[in-house]
Amino acid sequence: MNGTTKTRRLAIRGGLLVIYVLLMVLMIMTGRRHTILIDNKDAADGSYSAINGMEVAIDRQESSEYYPGDRDKAMVQGQTHKIKVTIFDDNKTIEKEFKVPLWSDVMIISVPKLIAGVEPWIEPFTMAEQIQEAQESGPPAGETSFQSIGPAQPMEVEQVPPTP
Amino acid sequence: MSAQKKFVKFFSQYAVVIIFVMITVAAIPPSGLSIKYILQEIITRLGRNSFLVLALLLPIYAGMGLNFGMTLGAMAGQVGLIFAVNFGISNWHGLLFALLVGLPISVFLGWICGLVMNRAKGREMVTGYILAFFINGIYQFFVMYMLGSVIPMGNRAIVLSRGYGIRNTLNLESVRQSLDNILVLRVGGYAVPVVTFIIIALLCIFIVWFKKTKLGQDMRAVGQDMVVAEAAGIPVEKTRIIAIIISTVLACAGQIIFLQNMGNLATYNAHDQTGFFAVAAILVGGASVTHASIANVFIGVTLLHSMFVVSPLAGQKLFGSAMIGEYFRQFIGYGVIALSLVLYAWRTRKAAADARLGLRGGTNGSTKVSAVKNGANGAAGNGGQA
Fold first, then answer.
1. Of B270, B47, B79, which is closest to residue B177 (Cα–Cα)?
2. Contact partners, residue B303, CB within 8 Å, separation at least 6
3. Do B268 and B168 contact (CB within 8 A), yes or no?
4. Cβ of A32 under 8 Å from any chain B Cβ?
5. Which segment of A89-93, B106-110, B219-223, B297-301 scores lowest on mean pLDDT?
6. pLDDT digits (tens, 9 = 90+) for B116-129
7. Residues A90-118: pLDDT tens digits?
8. Is A30 on the interface with B (CB under 8 A)?
9. Where are the domains of chain B?
10. Which CATH number fits domain B3-379: 1.10.3470, 1.10.1200, 3.30.70, 3.90.105?
């Protein structure tokens, strides 16, 4: 085997290896699944408010109805997707394209933000961050909290006569 | 040849198939299952298992017997699927990714298996069986310890709570039936997974084509007689290694097809029974240690799995416990392999005895020729007798 044949063979093998790796990367990029949370809630600072009623569809998936306070999820594959929002009040339809970062497992789309034109309306969502945010903002008014506020008070125990 | 001898020869050749047909047909009425249900189950199971069973053909052609070492390929396929689930790759993309990950592993394992089998000529089956146990130990170490500790796993849902090692059962929901559901043909109330069957058909065409190639012919020659093949200039050991590598790679793909249909993966023991059931299926289909065809694969999968479908319910109705049917399943599987091996050994000895008798002039010419031919297969030690 002369030098040229050896080099050509090595080049072909190297090329095949590159194609193999590229195919794997392509499968990750086109096949990776992401969870999209679709949110219809008011902003904490009142900068935007939830939509009264709407229908949201991601890509060609079945659409779902959302009312104020609703949150649901959709599963998508790949990185580029479309969201279609139909608002019940004025029958207006809005279509937007969005990209999901490759290594983000869960993204949250705030539809009121999208309608109001507030950026970013799509953000990565992590459970840990949500818990931290909830703790930082404190318990919502009017809801039961199991955290103690102020010094502990002695409990009043009802005296029950001993049973014979 | 007298009618009685003809009958004995026919029965010894197809004993396993005949016994199996009788048991299965007898078990259908007590099972209470409708023919339509059984047929649908058989279609599903044909799609699920045929690829794995087809992986056994090439080593048989190369005279290496039933490749119990196919379990190695199954393990490679499982590693591929674990990574596909870890990266969250869904649909057929996930299956292709699993195949791409499993392919180099299965080639490497097949090469090791081939090397070992070349040092254990004539004992390939038992060697493959024990080698599968050995590699299983390495697989357990890799999956139980390396994944999550040495190799980082991004998906915490599949990792054990201690932080490393994969959970006992993996949900393959992201790739579940993604190959089967690409195109489902509904005919007369039956659902046929078209793409799966197309892939199986392509493999059959590949095997038919491969047998006609130079390498395929070499394999046949090596399977007939290694000494003669070596003398004819065929690289016997290399050919045998290639046969095992192809079988291991096909087993890898077969296990991925099998698991995508099942929808979940028993991480530590899904591969345990892969070789065993594939071997049982091909033997039930009428193959032997030295002879097998594509037809044997489909007959075997159909018969074995129709028995698997009916036996638990037949056991329930006849003995009052479905567990009896489950035990029956295991018993039949091992029984078929044992019976087939015993029959093969008996036929080889009988052929050798007939050949000796023929040389002494005690039998007719046709028997002599066939006996010598069979004797050559057995005596050359290519049969892979366990």
1. B47
2. B17, B20, B21, B24, B284, B285
3. yes
4. yes
5. A89-93
6. 999 999 899 999 99
7. 888 999 999 999 988 899 999 999 888 88
8. yes
9. 3-379
10. 1.10.3470
